[in-house]
Amino acid sequence: MEPAQQRAREAPAAAGGGRGEPEPESSSPGRRSQAAPGAESGVEPSGGGGQLDGKGAGGPRRRRGGAGGCAPPAALAASGTPAAPGGAGNANSLLLRRGRLKRNLSAAASSPAAAPAAPLGTRSLDRKALLLKPPRQLQPLQPPERDWVRRDLQRGCVHVYERHMNCYLRPVLCTLETTAAELPAGAAPPGPPALYVQLHGETSRRLEAHEKPLQIQNDYLSQLGFRDLWRVQEEGMDSETGCLIRFYAGKPHSIGSSERIQLSGMYNVRKGKIHLPVNRWTRRQAILCGTCLIVSSVKESQTGKMHVLPLIGGKVEEVKKHQHCLAFSSSGPQSQTYYICFDNFTEYLRWLRQASKVASQRISSVDLSCCSLEHLPANLFYSQDLTHLNLKQNFLRLNPSPSTSRAFTKLKSLNLSNNNLGDFPLAVCSIPTLTELNVSCNALRSVPAVVGEMHNLQTFLLDGNFLQSLPDELEHMHQLSYVSLSFNEFTDIPGVLEKLTAMDKLCMSGNCIDTVNLQVLKRMPHIKHVDLRRLEGDEIDFLHHVTQLDLRDNKLGELDATVFNNVEVLHCERNQLVTLKISGYFLKALYASSNELVHLDVYPVPNCLAYMDISRNHLENLPEWVCDSRKLEVLDVGHNQIRELPARLFYNSSLRKLLAGHNMLGRLPDRLERMQVEVLDVQHNQLLELPSNLLLKADSLRFLNASANKLEMLPPATLSEETHSILQELYLTNNNLTDKCVPLLTGHPHLKILHMAYNRLQSFPASKMAKLEELEEIDISGNKLKAIPTTIMNCRRMHTVIAHSNCIEVFPEVMQLSEIKCVDLSCNELSEVTLPENLPPKLQELDLTGNPRLALDHKTLDNIRCFKIDQPSAGDASGAPAVWSHGYTEASGVKNKLCVAALSANNFCDNREALYGVFDGDRNVEVPYLLQCTMSDILAEELQKTKNEEEYMINTFIIMQRKLGTAGQKLGGSAVLCHIKHDPMDPGGCFTLTSANVGKCQTVLCRNGKPLPLSRCYVMSCEEELKRIKQHKAIITEDGKVNGVTDSTRILGYTFLHPSVVPRPHVQSITLTPQDEFFILGSKGLWDSLSMDEAVEAVRNVPDALAAAKKLCTLAQSYGCNDSISAVVVQLNVTEDSFCCCELNGVPPPSPGIFPQSVNVVIKDRPTDALGMPSSSSGMASEISSEISTSEMSSEVGSTASDEPPQVAMNENSPAYPGEQRCMLHPVCLSNSFQRQLSSATFSSAFSDNGLDSDDEEPIEGVFTNGSRVEVEVDIHCSRAKEKQLLQVPVEASDEGIVISANEDEPGLPRKAECSATGTIGRRRGNGSVAPQERSHNLIEVATDAPLRKTGGYFAAPAQPDPDDQFIIPPELEEEVKEIMKQHQEQQQQQQTQPEKLTFFLK
């Protein structure tokens, strides 16, 4: 095979003759480049993931929110960079925070006190250095060289790091056939060529001479998810790929790993007591390796006799009389002491740190894992007292050697896992003292018979190999008590296990066993614990003698475990069980969640049962035997269909925790006596009331969650002034509680957490708040409160006050509380804020967004970091319609770490695109921030390369994997991106929503009021993912996680789990239609607490996107979420003129804008949970009266997203499209149809209360308010008085109410159709409203009398009317409307030549 230098010469002459001899100008010292973000600073979580902004653990939940609005607050240029200051981009707080983060990092980098870049291989979690790109000498590829590579897909480039030249980066051109021996050595020192490859910053492996570097690199990049070979070729030419795969010329040097192997040097050494004049200082070789200090006996020499000083249990002390001097002492009566003086402080500190770790060990252990070892260090053999040796994740080749058995005479535990041995290491068989041996994940295909000589072996781990059988010689290992054979390729249980009588646990999960042979297991009476998780079969026969049985993650449909008379613990989660029968003689714990159980039978009654989890099944009744289990402490029956709980259950004196949420409970037992339950969860049921004596008799109750029910009142806690309640946490969110229940809260003086959000509270009496002195956290959002009582000052321990989405007008005196940390007063009616001169010392966040009347000095408040306020917006200068508007919120978990981040760009790349994202780091804060700061730039670059939605989304996620740098080597995070774009060739064309996600972050679209999932979670339950994981021999732990790290098989980061875990996302694109109301992006914490149906239903009636996001976050926290939460709600206003249905076989979906000849107006009973849009009959403008003077009206006109999609009931007998059916983008002039738009006039009102008067219980239909404005919905029609004849309006009786039919035009009359290029009547304003054309619209008359009431929260008027033009009126107004209609007909008969106006007086 020809050398790579000759291959390179095939390139054009301009390439400089290839890469074998670098050009002088390319290798000049002044030419440098920047490595990947954080390429030289690894990541290692400290203190449980690190703290952000100095906040300690155990604090309150903290929120971070941003305002949403129709006006795009930020714009990204085509390159993806933020817009210039002073433009519209200043309004986007998310991108502003991103800019501040980058500025802070830049300031930290330029600071003189900034720490130098960490050496290669270290893992410092300095977040300020994550985005920095430390300078590195780089020889860039020249354009002719790139052209040479691109001519042939068999060519490529690998970047080789020259370790001997201070990590000099050298690109080498080669082909797929170029071997490691043929790669040019560059300026490497003379000697045999050695090329090393390092994956994801971990261990480095020396390549064999025949291995092909470019093929290795291409395979790695292909496994990440790149589809096209040309894209793999391009990525290989990027030097930033080094954080994923890196090549070294010579073995890379890592300070961290070399310290763990050994420390050595020539130092001044003195033996014995330092004050004796006999001992003198001499310069000798000193080595710290393993557990010993080794000192040479010959001056200035490394040969001769070596003195060994065991350090386990000894001392390492600083000698103050000498500079940089340490004293090393051994333990025991014959202890010795060596004094070593080091040349500098760095050496002194390194030895002190490492030697102190060794001396502090209780056992003689050495950890040399992840050190890229090919051979054991020679000095390690001096540690003759070594008992535990960890050598996992290296590249060892252990051959039989007499020195092995002689050196490790006391070795008991040896870990050789993940060394890719291929063959069983025979050398370990000569260590007779071994009691524990781990050779998992080594691609072993057989176990030699010589292992039978290890007679003392007790634990033998062989997981994750390719074993199909075991040797019979294992029967000689009489002390072997634990053998793990999980995730191998056994087709049956090895027969030799029958003779291992000391073994009590059988671990064979993840094998290829279709059916367990009952006869084999019967011959193993010594087996007590059977682990048969994730088998490939679906039929299992069982035996009679086990105490613990694990059958998780199989496909079992039925399980009869009554033959297990001695079973104590049964795991059968995540199966398909419909019936389950168990023997209850000795049953202590039952885990049967996530099945399809309808019948559960345990006989006899399990008197030893203490824990039972049967949640997420289909049970309709709780078995009677449960009430007779006298020792039952924890019972979880959540997510079933249980309608009633037996009263005897609450009489159980041992029951401490009862979880019965997400069922169909209509009531709880009426009479309860001395209930001992401490935790009671009955959320998401149908409870109208709680038992009257529940809180009187529950003396031990500490936690009660009754959220998401229909409660209107609370039971009393005491009948006198004295109370025995010890209740500390009370969650009552999303009920119908009124002010009457507030006084009852005083019966719980020890209450610490109170959640009463989204009820019907109008006030919170000050006297009652004063009695809750121990209150620490309160959430009263989503009510109708106008003030927070001043007596909140009595709650000295209060640290969190959440009261968004109310009508609060006066800023509460919470700033006087010394412990206050988080205050959320967003979406209220605040007009001014009074702040003390000195803010509370622990204040972390004060959220004032969504207060439209609040006027603040932004220049002053921007410097206060904890403030969250609405940013000033310049609006959309382009005048484009506001098709989308967004709101977002973030909340930290109970650990007070915000491990989520959100991204929003209403104007992305141009004003016709948008980008939104949510990122979740689980327990780390670094990855979400990196994703937030980088991902939009990557997507903008990918949009320049391809317009295919799936392709650019997939490539964005994969490139983000590279951009994470060393942060993504050990940490990871979920992500979801939503990109809205239109066809650039058709400026008025359709909008396409593309969603891509990895991990547990997901998106759901609300279409026609129904949830439409746009994401997918790749977990172990996915068959294709499980198959892929097994192929790579990853270990799936009992909790369903890959190697115990993550349960998502597709996620960003965690590159050390490659190739089992990859960043390839799920991508789904959908064309937006007028029926699409909004979509939600949420983090893992949100979707773990709310289903998609519940989330859509919860915010569908909330008009403001910010308030909607806040509501989702509040609900999730009240429902039990303790993790960080992020939610982004994007409201859509897609009109008919931006939706094309020509591709749908000419049949358009039901949408406003085009109507049939006749329109039916149906007056019927309204469902209590539905919202309709008031509209008037075709050809008539509605004039509505009001008690408010029209002088209060404003000239502002706007339209926003609809709460509910229009109802569809097109008249079958009168089609809307005669002849060829076309869409609004490609219209056909119709003679019998017309088009219209809906506008809304906005005026101020002193009586506005979020759409509610003070005496109203429900909002008023047709009047919409954002707190300071009231919007009245008005239709604009085409009225041609001279062309129209008398309208006949017959009134017909109907079962549902009154049906009024109105024909728009009489047949045969000529009519002039209004057609335009965009299909829109009138001109679009910048805020999305429609300005009528004078020639086609009559006068808009705005009424002042309140129209119908509407359930739910306040909302904004839609931009389009209902396609059926249905006007639904409650029955109580039917008679009045009949009279109005009658009067209207009389007026029409009197004035046939003039158009009449139909006036509704609704009271």
UniProtKB/TrEMBL annotation:
Gene3D superfamilies in the cross-refs: Pleckstrin-homology domain (PH domain)/Phosphotyrosine-binding domain (PTB), PPM-type phosphatase domain, Ribonuclease Inhibitor
Localization: Cytoplasm; Membrane; Nucleus
Biased composition (Gly residues): 45-59
Cytoplasm among keywords: yes
Residue span(s) of domain PPM-type phosphatase: 885-1132
Keywords tagged on the record: Acetylation, Apoptosis, Cytoplasm, Hydrolase, Leucine-rich repeat, Manganese, Membrane, Metal-binding, Nucleus, Phosphoprotein, Protein phosphatase, Repeat
Entry-linked SMART domains: LRR_BAC, LRR_TYP, PP2Cc
Enzyme Commission (EC) number: 3.1.3.16
One GO process term, biological-process aspect: apoptotic process
Cofactor(s) needed for function: Mn(2+)
Region annotation Disordered: where it falls in the sequence: 1-73, 1188-1208, 1381-1403
Recorded GO CC terms: cytoplasm; membrane; nucleus
Top-tier EC class: hydrolase
The PH domain, residue ranges: 260-360
Entry protein name: protein-serine/threonine phosphatase
Organism: Aquila chrysaetos chrysaetos
Lineage: Eukaryota, Metazoa, Chordata, Craniata, Vertebrata
